[in-house]
Amino acid sequence: MAPEPATTQDPDTMDERVSAATRELATFVSRTRTEDLPADVLHESKRCLLDFFGTAIGAVHEEAPTIVARTMQAMGGQPQAAVLGTTARLRATDAALVNGISAHVFDFDDTHIPTILHPTTPLYASGLALAEWRGGTGADLLAAHALGYELSARVSVALYPEHYDIGWHMTGTTGTLGAATASARLLGLSPALMPHALGLAATQAAGHREQFGAMTKSFHAGHAAEAGLLSALLAEGGYVAAPDSLEGRRGMFSVMSTRSTPEDLTSGLGDRWEIFRNGIKPYACGVVTHPPIDSVRSLGSEHGVRPEDVESIELQVHPLVAELTGKTNPLTALEGKFSVQFACSIALIEGTARERQFTDANVVRPDVRSLMSRISVVPSDQVPHEAAIATARLTDGRELTIRVDAATGTPGNRISDEELQEKFHDLVDGILGRERAELLATRVWQVDRATSVADLIAAATPAG
């Protein structure tokens, strides 16, 4: 039973002080009919859902989500929603937190390429928990994702790059607004209530890039899901936020960035969809490392280069590669995800850089360390962040240059539905078993016909 709105706000009348951009976004999210969403947009949301289940279930037994799940269980509460990949159930907000951490802990979740936001983890971690607890069809879930993606990506575009450059982690900040949007949509909040959900989310938005390479980075994604869901629930119950929480003098844009472009919030809204700029990761590490990984892998796959053939490899990359993944002496698997030299070395040695390549043992292997020492990184403003140039000098005197302009998984070089499902099985089969994983994948592709998310959750739960 939904709580009665408090008398402190009128759910049918939007505060006249709400900015024009927030007003337009709130109305768009609340009033757009699911049947009016483009079919290709909803298909992208299905792809994101399959990828989310893969990353969340695949990492559920990692240390970070295990610690948080154990802590939340000890605190008690109604068992409202599932911890995916387990038989455990928690309060909906707690389940959103744990599932969000799981889905991000491998750094294998999707990315809005222009802003490096990981959009889907907060959206589906909150949306699934809410839909399981309060009800919602599969089509409702897809629509909530599509619209939440649109809002969080547009806010990210309006803040990027300054917001990111001064140290904020987009997934923890704008991801919170996305989760609030998706949750508010699932709850059926009116346009008048939507700004309150966004304001509550904006005041909780947090996450510092100093945590990259630490366990706490994944907490950003989980907290975004938890806080976004709570924001929507509080707005539904009558909790009031300032009317201009985004663009106000002391609002999110002014406080959390040195520059913003509010016009990007609504330009082309409903005609140009940000979800088409989504990238699905083929490698389990920071997305900025994917172009150089592609280029180094091509040395092996296209030219037969072996690690022992390499005298040196020079990587020309966007400056963010060195800034975000410049760890030259990683000592753990997690640190290895933020070392472009390690990621490229293991990719050439083993042919790929999926989660099983990122282990504590691999980062200190002598053959890996040897190749890492022969790889140099040259940042260049002339190289887009989706591109890289690898120049290899070989022991036989040859010099090979490989240029990648669109890394695998990015909009310019998409992975197919079949390749995405292969990634999903690689992550999930060991947790659920092949048969149950296939059932879950089938239900994801058919989710738009589901009258509830119950069958999805059942398939995402281990048998017995």
Describe the structure.
With 464 residues, this protein is of the alpha+beta class. The protein folds into two domains: 20-279, 2-methylcitrate dehydratase PrpD (Orthogonal Bundle), CATH 1.10.4100.10; 287-408, 60s Ribosomal Protein L30, Chain: A, CATH 3.30.1330.120. It contains 20 helices and eight strands. The strands form three sheets. It has a four-stranded mixed sheet with strand order 6-5-7-8. Strands 1-2 form a two-stranded antiparallel sheet. α4 packs antiparallel against α5, α12 (290-303) packs parallel to α15 (340-350) and α15 (340-350) packs across α17 (366-372). The radius of gyration is 22 Å and the shape is globular. The two termini are 31 Å apart. The model is unreliable at 3-7 (pLDDT under 50). One of its GO terms (molecular function) is lyase activity. This is 2-methylcitrate dehydratase PrpD. Residues 283-445 form the MmgE/PrpD C-terminal domain.
